[in-house]
Specification:
81 residues; alpha+beta; Pemi-like Protein 1, Chain: D; 3 helices; 4 strands
């Protein structure tokens, strides 16, 4: 599913599909935590106070960052295919 980034005042927002909100059990007004990784261009949305943890360990993240850095050109070429 493709969503657009929209400008809201001085900030930006991405709408959350109703199907995801329903499946996750969220409702309007709920507080969420948004974790992001600029290198992976990834965001995770989870309920505030949630014990849900991502399964990526700091060690794996460090290895992945190093791998991406060392292989950046090859990965960019592969992405074009």
């Amino acid at each position: 599913m493709t969503q657009k980034i929209i400008k809201v005042g001085n900030s930006f927002a991405v709408t959350i599909p109703k199907s995801f909100v329903n499946e996750a059990g969220f409702k309007s007004g709920d507080e969420v935590i948004v974790e992001s990784d600029k290198d992976l261009k990834l965001m995770v949305v989870k309920p505030a106070g949630s014990p849900i943890q991502t399964k990526i360990t700091p060690e794996f993240k460090a290895w992945l960052d190093d791998f991406n850095k060392k292989n950046k050109k090859a990965l960019q070429e592969l992405a074009k295919l």
